[in-house]
Amino acid sequence: MKKLALCGLVCALAVMLSGCGGSDRPPMAKVSGTVTLDDKPIEGASVMFMPVGGGKPAYGVTDAAGRFNLTTYETGDGALVGDHQVTITKKEVSGVIVTEDGVSGGIAPEGIQEKWIIPERYSSPETSQLKQTVSPKMEPIEFKLTQ
After folding, report:
1. pTM for the model
2. For the chain, which domains are there?
């Protein structure tokens, strides 16, 4: 009898937890936009919205036209409603040597080199000075970055 009661308790708990997905999430809004650097679209830039009051950040990557859509929990679901600090990052890293097996390697004699495609100041919430309020039914956002 105890095993049956324990099994019933485990099953009830599993059912309760499986229903916790979307209904317990804070309010969200779809967020899209474009990123340009000196009036040119940037492909492959990482865009991150970090809620000021805490919570899960939203993330997106720009396409060839500089367009992005943010994701927090599920692809394209947007960002938490509220105020956000924004970072936008793109850099190239060289100096890593990978062997033919693709698993092992090392660092080149000249060391690891970073080349910031988007100026490094945009990669930190403290220095980017990019802020955005997310609200329901937002228009696309334009981030016009400069060197």
Report:
1. 0.77
2. 25-90+119-145 (2.60.40.10)
